[in-house]
Amino acid sequence: MHADPIDALLGSDERAFRAEVRGFIRDTLPESTRRNADLGRHATRDEVLHWQRALYARGWAAPTWPEAYGGTGWDPVRQFLFTLECGLGSAPKVPAFGTKMIGPVLYTFGSEAQKAFYLPRILRAEDWWCQGFSEPGAGSDLAALKTRAERVGDRYVVNGQKIWTTKAQHANRMFALVRTATGARRQDGISMLLIDMDSPGIELRPIIGIDGSHSLNEVFLTDVAVPAGNLVGDEGRGWDYARFLLANERSDITGVGRSRRQLARLRALVGQRGAGAGLLAAIAEVDIALTAVELTELRYLAAQGRGEDIGAGASILKLRGTEVQQELTRLLREVLGAEALRFGAAAQGGAEGIAEEYLYNRASTIYGGSSEIQRGLIARAAMAEGA
Fold first, then answer.
1. Residue-number span of the structural domain to which 209 is assigned
2. Is the same domain home to 271 and 350?
3. Which of 121, 170, 302, 357 has the highest CB neighbour count under 10 A?
């Protein structure tokens, strides 16, 4: 049994809350879903929706939202503990696109009509959202996007292409960045639209990942009509809303609960198979790194709860959290040797899901802003502080 680095820092109320969440997961999560997660399999769409609706019934569908909009009203530390316990308890990761990303944008910048229509649907898991940001020539350099939206009467007509659109094959709605005007700065003239994925003129093409899964898509938009009422906030302010949204995405990407579960699996395999001194040292190093991520995230969240600006904190968490994820799957492969090369049903004896997870995690230091981008943001923040 390994000591919990978080528990000693919590007060009695926070420990009681953590126990409540743990008990809810234990009593509510179907055993088949838990088993699939423990074998390294990604949750199916039905498993995710079942879990989202169970959270809604409990009043926990939106841990980061204010109570006024149907959220829990939890402080940042409770939000962290909830996410941590969900990861430790093998619960499906609820897609961030609704509750973590577009939801906060809408209740902060959206119209009253948008709030009244979309927010309850997000809470009840009636809509599956996808993110229409990246384009073939605009990934990390998002301001280079070229998808255009022309105002024609009471609607916008959208033409362009989006790429790397996660789970678009399941989505019925997309929040997209589009260019509504050209300005002196590339960031000027970018707006955010809410697009119905069943609209005429939308075509999806799957992008099959290196792990064989279909998670990503190309989305082609040809003369897609979008009601003018689906413009978020003000025309030309999409860049500001996107920055707000991406800060939420990066702060949710550490996955410390899931990484703790992977570390426990790694230790169990080493206990069964043995390991040399070099491998044991590497496991100790990744444990220390994971603990540092946990404590750093908790420290940042406590600061946010006091109303403090954490600066490049989200970038630091994204950078280190994803590096830890990659190192854990690398070590699992090292322990298993050639057995870790087996896919699907061919993987047995502790190797289940390892090959797929290893390959899937190769992208974790790219999506949500690459590690190179995060280092640049951290460096600029540090230089600004020293100026």
1. 129-237
2. yes
3. 357
Helices 45-58/31-38 angle, 10° precision:
120
Task: Please give the torsion angle defined by the CA atoms of residues 210, 32, 252 and 221, in that order, rounded to the nearest 10 degrees.
Answer: 50
Helix pair 313-336, 354-361: axis angle to 10 deg: 150
pLDDT in tens, 308-338: 888 888 889 999 999 999 999 999 999 988 8
SS3 call for 181: coil
**Could you tell me if 221 and 267 lie in one domain?**
no
Residue 359's SS3 state is helix
The residue among 241, 247, 202, 251 whose CA lies nearest residue 114 is: 241
Identify the CATH number of the domain in which residue 280 sits.
1.20.140.10
Do 271 and 311 have their domain in common? yes
Helices of type H across 186-312: 238-251, 256-273, 277-305
The residues that are catalytic are 249
Cβ atoms < 10 Å from Cβ of 310: 18
Same domain, 224 and 294: no
Distance CA 197, CA 224 (A): 10
- Within 10 angstroms of residue 322's Cβ, the number of other Cβ atoms is 26
* Furthest C-alpha separation in the chain: 70
Selection from 253, 245, 110, 231 nearest residue 181 by Cα:
231
298 and 366 housed in the same domain:
yes
Return the DSSP state at 44: P
Are residue 27 and residue 75 in the same domain, yes or no? yes
Look up the pTM and report it. Answer: 0.87
- Tens digits of residue pLDDT in 63-75: 999 999 999 999 9
Residue 382 and residue 258 in one domain: yes
